[in-house]
Design brief:
mainly beta, globular, outer membrane lipoprotein receptor (LolB), chain A, single chain, 3 helices, nine-stranded antiparallel β-sheet
């Protein structure tokens, strides 16, 4: 059971084949909310997992839907003023004060997930011991198209297929 929570939680973060790191450049100023569709890949040692991600972010809340490459729902992660929740496809839930606390509860290790939206917008300061790299940027607006997070034997890649207007 812990392993499923661990994998679902790690899948919150990852993408595809490595490419050279893109030069540092801030994302367009003034972005406070976004929506994206993409793919996550999580590797820990020889174990590899892939999932699709649909993320809606506002300053007040986040909703992340994770699904298999064939579209079957795996998990929903949410964050708002009342805390953070992980709901698996079978209905099991975990609740915590925030995403960092949820990671600690589910995985037993502190992941700096509260800052994930900042990283997506290109702010890589204070990554809590994780190496966060923007591997590719969109040419038209400078938003990240591929991000990699790495710590110990865990590698998480997020390939952003489409940035959308958050509603």
């Amino acid at each position: 059971m812990q392993r499923r929570f661990f994998l679902a939680f790690l899948l919150l973060l990852a993408g595809c084949a490595a490419v050279p790191v893109a030069p540092p450049r801030p994302a367009p100023a003034g972005i406070t909310q976004f929506a994206l569709i993409g793919r996550l890949a999580v590797s820990q040692g020889p174990t590899r997992h892939h999932v699709s991600i649909d993320w809606r972010h506002t300053p007040q809340a986040d909703v992340i839907l994770l699904s298999t490459p064939l579209g079957q729902g795996v998990a929903e992660l949410t964050r708002d003023a009342s805390g953070a929740r992980l709901i698996l496809a079978d209905g099991r839930q975990r609740v915590a004060d925030d995403w960092n606390a949820l990671a600690r509860e589910v995985l037993g290790v502190p992941l700096p997930l509260n800052d994930a939206a900042r990283w997506l917008l290109g702010d890589l300061a204070d990554t809590g011991g994780w190496r966060v790299s923007i591997l590719e940027r969109q040419a038209q607006d400078g938003l990240p198209a591929q991000i990699e997070l790495e710590r110990d034997d865990i590698v998480v890649r997020l390939k952003i297929d489409e940035w959308l207007e958050a509603k």
